[in-house]
Amino acid sequence: MQITLNDLSRFKDPASLTWERYVALQARERERYLAERATIPAEAMAYQTVSRRYLERAVDQFANNYYSELSATHYIATAAANAPFDELKKCCLFQLADEQRHLEMDREVFERAGIPERNWLPAWEAPGTTCRFFRHVLELDDTIEILVKANFVAEGAAGPGTFAVLADGAEARGDVFSAVNHRARVRDETRHISFARALVRALIEDDPSNLDVIQRWQDESLQLFVEVARSGERREWWEGFLASTATCARDKSAGIRRECPAPAERPRVGTSPGRRRARRRYARRARSCHRRGTPSCR
User: Fold this and answer.
1) pLDDT at position 257, please?
2) Domains detected in the chain
3) What pTM did the predictor assign?
């Protein structure tokens, strides 16, 4: 089902970017990123500071990073091509440039880690990854549905918090290059979330009945994310990944397994701080089940 924004004046890019401002912004970001990279020791850039076990287990996470960005370059290009008005097209094109840069960063991680390219796609297609969600988005051609599902829901609920955790975890295990990449990535992701949030707000203000469709899209998206956490499919991988550092969690070493309660209720659509927190809590609950391998998330 498609929805439209009748009053185009309701949507404005929250970042107020023009092409000139975007180019200047990314020039500053590039300078910052290169300065951060320059502080990374050569042995860390060559992945000599991580354990072999970490590298074996991290392939799945590298694949999740790389193929989600590859997917984004395609679905955001589709969103830009089909955008119903110029202000939205401009936001999509800026995001497309961001995603292409993220894709290049993630490809370099694979290459510097010495992981053969033939192993990348099978790692992403394994049970319990984000593959199914992104392939669903790639099948869409409606700009508004793509942005609601990919930016408003997926990036809004899981993006910034997830990448902060991944950055800290990678750095703690000696993978400083991945940590720098994640922190650079999240600075762009917040802009993508902001304009999707502005779009959702404009759609609901334009026609309150749009809320029902947006809610349905959100439910479909979150369901695909929750399925990642089901049935303990990823428990062995997560335990191995977490054990790749010398320090193991006390509960894990004691053999304790806590059941994770299911999210009590799906979060309602909205752009208020309370609604955004609800979506983040829902996503964190699913990720917590994912890490523990518990089957109780539904």
Assistant:
1) 34
2) 18-209 (1.10.620.20)
3) 0.77
